[in-house]
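Researcher: Here's a chain I'd like modeled. Treat it as a single chain, no partners, no ligands.
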Amino acid sequence: MSHLHPAIIRVIKMNSYAKLGSSLAHNYRTMRVSHADENRTHLNEDWKPAKTPAAIKAAIRERVSTADRIAKRAVIALEYLVSAPREAFSEHGGHLDWRPYFKDALTWIEQRHGTANVIAANIQLDETTPHLVVYVCPLVQHPERKRQREVAGKVDPATGKQFRERREFVEPAHIALSANYYMGSRDKLIQLQSDFAEQVGKRHGLRRGVERSALNHVDLKTYHDALMKGLQQRLDISPALLTPKSSMLGLRRESPGEMAVRVTEALQTQVEGLMAQLATAQLDRQRAKEWELTAARARNELAAEREAHQKTREFFKKLVGGLTDKQLQKVVEFRQNVLRKRQELKQQRETEEQARLEQQHREKEQAMVDRLKQLSPVELAQLSDEERAPLWRLLAKRSDLGATQDKFLESGYFHFDGSVIRAPEKEQPSQSPGADSPSPKPWVPAWAKPSL
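Model: Modeled as a single isolated chain. Structure tokens:
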């Protein structure tokens, strides 16, 4: 295994504001953290405008509200933790400078999720190992796309059986709150680790951890609890079991209590580290077992790969065994010809599909043009923002619609960006004709009016 230290990145899903609040209280020290040095907490840094639990919660709520689709138990936030082994950092004798490493890590996370969705970034230097904590709202912008699904089709009049048929429909562009898009499978998590190590860790002299390892992450709380439990198991030597020592002249004998304190303190210094090791021995045994599982998994995967390779060799041996060189050359040429035709067919289908989509787009745009020419300024102003926005974008895009756009602008209802300046006044209901009001004139079609 390489002597390089591994780059560490972990992600935790949070599907409730209660879980988010608990995490924020820990990381922003609004609750007591036993393994954090209170004398060093002032060294912690914030690299985003949201610097308090309340501000971070509010920012995440605001981002979540922009989503068009939110599941009932949706993950509202992801907590990234970026670090490396303690001995890798320059403060502890290693080569790693935490500031540029964490800056590159934050940039990588922003590129992955979008800067607007990265809410908070906190550097923690008051614990044993420097680490970066980043809170992200997992929003995903999905463009408009075509999908197919099975729907109920026609009914056979003879049998009464209803057929199923596949139909194509357009899924509009939308913003989804989806943690699964980023880390919804084991393969995605493996890819996350690989990408981070390659694009960030490698730049700072760090390597990737063991891929597809059976090791499970032991969180800091579990480790620190075990460590503190071991340190609390102090030696207790009873004075009754000890022989007091006398001074050189024998004028004063050491009391049992004094001797107990002396011996206990001397032994405590020597065995304190051993007690801590004993307390964490269970974690070490668990790690050893997980490494055994990792090795076994690697052996099984290698054996499966060799078996598949052998089957492939046997298959090709049966396929081309006994053929002359000329015959083999013909087989190769035939294969290349099939692949070429397949590629041509694929390109033809793609060209036809592109032409169909372009035609569909032109028809859709023409329908919008026809509608714009028929709409009055009042009717356009009464449309919802979502319905009016694409129409106005088309007005700005098409030079042949300049006169139509001028008509709408001159009405006084619209800004240049298409937003409504003032809503059109609703027409007052006409009063019923009385003695003082003239009777309404009957409507006469144009063809019936006398010519002047």
